[in-house]
Specification:
The complex is a heterodimer of chains A (about 170) and B (about 725). By secondary structure, chain A is of the alpha+beta class. Chain A has two domains: about 80 residues, Ubiquitin-like (UB roll); about 70 residues, [2Fe-2S]-binding domain (DNA polymerase, domain 1, Orthogonal Bundle). Chain A is built from five helices and five strands. Chain B has about 725 residues and is of the alpha+beta class. In chain B, about 30% of the residues lie in helices and about 20% in strands. In chain B, strands 10-11-8-18-15-16-17 form a seven-stranded mixed beta sheet. In chain B, helix 4 runs parallel beside helix 6 and helix 6 crosses helix 7. The chains are: A alpha+beta (about 170), B alpha+beta (about 725). Chains A and B meet through helix 1, helix 2, helix 3, helix 4 and helix 5 of A and helix 8 and helix 18 of B.
Chain lengths: ~170, ~725
């Protein structure tokens, strides 16, 4: 029986030591918000936080984890999507198909923790996740909105929300 | 508003739904697995269900894959329904339901940027019909004529008495009325729209920010098993043998299954165990007749078509060969465009459960009805005994219009009767078994008079027909009409050429290599626009004309084409100095019913590093249902088109695709993405698509800007294979 600390809970499960963390999360722990896109750390759809750092979980075998690390997945990033990055994403309608966005949000939230006001170059260097729909410009706009404390108007998208607000 | 009196009607449908309220929904849930099955609420009509709490459920037949169609179609229905947008939710009817109800929801296929442009009329009429029935039900309740009542924001008001009621209160009564005659329904003038045409937020965003949105790959069912699959890497090859004993006893493995005559799958409790076991499975392939094919043999095969005598004419006027032969001057250039893979971020997958009596499939698909047909064929059951449940797509781009993965999943499920099996392709499988953007080459020849005017143009396309792979029955007299996208004659065409030449010949020498071709976002417009827009730029430079001025001259008869081109030229500041070191390039085309243009601004460093600073885009889709989502589609299409132009190339060696993952098939990432400014210019009077058309102008605008910056004319993609050091 293996043990991992995921989203604040100790979880026990059966898996071979070479099983990537991604597949433990998705299959043994039923946390399917973390996505499989490539399996070779190219696309970033599987990004989770391990002790606060962004990690591509598809190349992180279970055997490389001690069990003490604090692992956070998209499901554990916040209660009810209330993390500032998630809120900005919703306000600016960042996702298209959305498949990459769990990984994108995890990568961005980790970046903003270490660099609360990243430059374009910082963003380009840190956010290398693949989005085939091409949401990159809204991702960038949303990162800047979060950096400025949630000032959604600066993105100039004028999106009308069902609650009557405009961002 | 219609004053027709609507008579109560007891249909089998409403009877069943009505019964369910008493019987607990058990009977109905089998027949109508919708919102109304869960809470016993009958639908007002096929498009609209309204619950007592005024929640509005709008049925969406087309697939949502990121392009925003789900929200756009809901806006169109809600516009006519006059409902409270804050209470709108959506649901997919199933392909089986559509079949059982004589295709009441029309076409489910979601491709060719058709989601809205092909269904705007009947979905709006669906909303209007429901509104008329709701108002009638309220009027009947008050004993007043419906004409004295108005509806807005899900509230019906009798003007004279001031009485009010809500949709939720009268929905059950409305559901019992006979719908008004469809011909009597008058749709709103788009100028009066309150929801459609507005920059509304998408309906499906929040779940995509929390990990709660399930895609096909995420499906969980009781007793679900998982399958990993390998198909013969060489197209046209077969499975010769595999040694199942070699993986016996591996953890979780349940079965090794031959799939069709060319593939083998391992079924296990988890996908990782299935995939690991499959990787360890000794497999022998019979590579078949294509084992010698390579990118070089394909290139030569196509090259011969550039000068072949036999070709199918797509568009012609006058006598271009004679005009060119007699011209004072001739310009000629040969272009080529490689294979591309869709590389949706969610790999192909499908889940199936088969019994001798029934086959069910859960699948992210762009074509639910084709998936149902594939399930029926693979299961050996009639379509009425099959069902497809559409799940969210992690990208489609045309790939998920095919149903090869549905066939495989059902074939695997047949080996495990009664147990649902989820088959997921590895990224490597997905890269090597695509439905690829076709490969083409193009020779363009222009005849010029002494003043530099074009007297004749011949555009010879040699290469692959998509229809030859996906729908050979649609090739008539050797002609695949889709080949000529963006080059069709003016006048009613959805992809008409914007230029007028005194003598024109556009023809196609069909050359179909063994690699399967498919619809890839933008389809044939991608390369056709690169070929023609680059060549127009070549003519401009060869004759000393400004590329915008030349286009304006040639497009005098195409005001809509010209309008979007002028819009980007003006916004980008064409003709005014660009920032130091920055150069501009233009492109325009028409496809999927919309007119599009782009102006790219690039710089190229002394050592040849390209930077795309900005692309100004314009699109005229006739009507703009959600401008902020159109902007998102334009940006996304540029990312997809530039991925192909900058990096994308599927190559063939020994009959198989060489690329296996994103390390060998790189795509645009954040750092590569230019700033995009989108001008949405809906001129009204027609309905054009949005998801695809603009993709085609990104690459030629960038290529023309690169020429302006470096003097290098790139005629073969991808760009990463060329040095851009100053010529």
């Amino acid at each position: 029986m293996a043990k991992l600390n995921v989203n604040g809970k100790v979880r026990e499960f059966e898996a071979e030591p070479d099983t990537p963390l991604l597949w433990v999360l998705r299959e043994q722990l039923s946390l399917t918000g973390t996505k499989y896109g490539c399996g070779i750390a190219q696309c970033g759809a599987c990004t989770v936080h391990i002790d606060g750092a962004p990690v591509r979980s598809c190349v992180r075998p279970l055997a490389s984890l001690e069990g003490k690390e604090k692992i956070v997945t998209i499901e554990g990033l916040s209660k009810n999507g209330s993390h500032p990055v998630q809120k900005a994403w919703a306000k600016l309608d960042v996702p298209q198909c959305g498949f990459c966005q769990s990984g994108m949000i995890m990568a961005v939230s980790a970046l903003l923790k270490t660099k609360p006001n990243p430059s374009d170059a910082d963003i380009d260097a840190a956010i290398t996740n693949i989005c085939r729909c091409g949401t990159y410009n809204r991702v960038r706009a949303a990162i800047k909105v979060v950096a400025k404390g949630g000032a959604t108007k600066m993105a100039k998208l004028s999106i009308q929300h069902a609650d009557g607000s405009t961002t | 508003m219609s004053t027709t009196t609507l008579q109560p009607q007891l249909s089998r449908r409403s009877f069943l739904a009505g019964t369910s309220a008493v019987a607990g929904g058990l009977v109905v849930s089998f027949h109508i697995p919708f919102a109304n099955a869960q809470d016993g609420i009958p639908e007002v009509n096929a498009w609209v269900v309204i619950r007592p709490d005024d929640t509005v459920v709008i049925r969406i037949a087309r697939s949502e894959m990121g392009q925003g169609t789900l929200t756009g179609l809901a806006q169109l229905v809600a516009e006519e329904l006059e409902c409270n947008w804050a209470k709108v939710t959506t649901e997919y009817p199933t392909p089986g339901q559509n079949l059982a109800r004589k295709r009441v929801w029309g076409n489910f296929a979601t491709g060719g940027s058709r989601g809205i442009r092909e269904s705007h009329d009947y979905v709006r009429k669906g909303g209007a019909t429901a509104r008329i029935m709701l108002v009638q039900a309220a009027a009947d309740g008050w004993g007043v004529p419906a004409a004295e009542c108005v509806a807005a924001n899900s509230v019906i008001t009798h003007k004279a008495s001031g009485r009010k009621t809500t949709y939720g209160k009268v929905a059950a009564a409305a559901a019992r009325l006979t719908p008004p005659d469809a011909a009597s329904i008058v749709l709103k003038d788009p100028k009066t729209w309150k929801l459609a045409g507005k920059r509304l937020a998408r309906l499906d965003t929040v779940k995509k920010t929390t990990g709660a949105q399930d895609y096909g790959i995420d499906l969980q069912l009781p007793d679900l098993l998982n399958a990993a699959i390998k198909d013969c890497p060489v197209f046209g090859g077969k499975l010769r043998s595999f040694n199942a004993a070699a993986i016996e006893g591996r953890p979780g493995v349940k079965k090794v299954v031959q799939v069709g005559d060319s593939a083998v799958a391992v079924v296990a409790d988890t996908w990782w165990r299935a995939k690991s076991a499959l990787d360890a499975l000794p497999i022998e392939w019979d590579d078949g007749p294509n084992a010698q094919a390579s990118s070089a043999t394909i290139r030569d095969f196509l090259k011969a078509g550039l000068d072949a005598k036999e070709a199918i004419v797509g568009n012609a006027n006058g006598d271009a060969p004679a005009a060119i032969a007699g011209a004072a001057r001739k310009i000629e250039a040969v272009y080529a465009y490689p294979y591309q893979n869709h590389a949706t971020l969610e790999p192909m997958n499908a889940t199936a459960r088969w019994t001798p009596e029934r086959c069910e499939v859960w699948v992210p698909t762009q074509n639910g009805e084709a998936a149902l047909a594939a399930a029926a064929e693979a299961s050996g059951l009639p379509p009425a005994k099959c069902e497809v449940y559409k799940l969210y797509l992690g990208g489609g781009f045309g790939r998920r219009g095919r149903s090869d993965f549905v066939t495989q999943a059902v074939q695997i499920a047949k080996a495990m009767p009664g147990t649902p099996v989820k088959m997921i392709w590895s990224r490597e499988e997905d890269m090597q078994h695509g439905s690829y953007h076709p490969v083409t080459q193009c020779k363009l020849t222009a005849g010029l008079d002494a003043q530099g005017n074009v007297t004749g143009l011949h555009m010879r396309i040699s290469g692959q027909s998509i229809l030859a792979t996906v729908a050979p029955q649609n090739i008539k007299d050797g002609k695949d009409p889709v080949v000529f996208q963006g080059l069709d004659k003016a006048g009613g065409a959805e992809a008409a050429i914007g230029y007028s030449f005194p003598n024109l010949l556009i023809d196609h020498a069909m050359r179909n290599p063994h690699v399967p071709a498919g619809f890839w976002r933008g389809v044939n417009l991608n390369h056709n626009a690169i070929y023609l827009e680059s060549f127009i730029d070549e003519i401009a430079h060869a004759t000393g004309q400004d590329p915008l001025a030349l286009r304006r001259k040639l497009m005098a008869n195409s005001p809509k084409h010209l309008a979007v081109l002028n819009a980007v030229a003006e916004r980008a500041g064409w003709g005014t100095p660009a920032p130091k070191g920055v150069f501009r390039g233009l492109a325009q085309t028409m496809g999927f019913g919309s007119y599009v243009a782009a102006c790219a601004e690039v710089s190229v460093s002394d050592d040849g590093q390209l930077r795309i600073h900005r692309i100004v885009a314009a699109t005229d889709p006739g009507h703009a249902v959600n401008p902020q989502q159109i902007e998102a589609q334009v940006e996304g299409s540029f990312s997809y088109g530039l991925s192909a132009a900058l990096f994308g190339e599927i190559t063939v060696k020994d009959g198989a695709v060489e690329q296996k993952n994103f390390d060998s098939y790189p795509v645009v990432r954040m750092a590569d993405m230019p700033k995009v400014e989108t001008i949405v210019l809906p001129s009204g009077g027609f309905w054009g698509g949005v998801g695809e058309p603009t993709i085609a102008v990104a690459a030629p605008a960038v290529l023309n800007a690169i020429f302006a910056a470096t003097g290098r004319r790139i005629r073969e993609l991808p760009l990463r294979q060329h040095s851009l050091k100053r010529a």
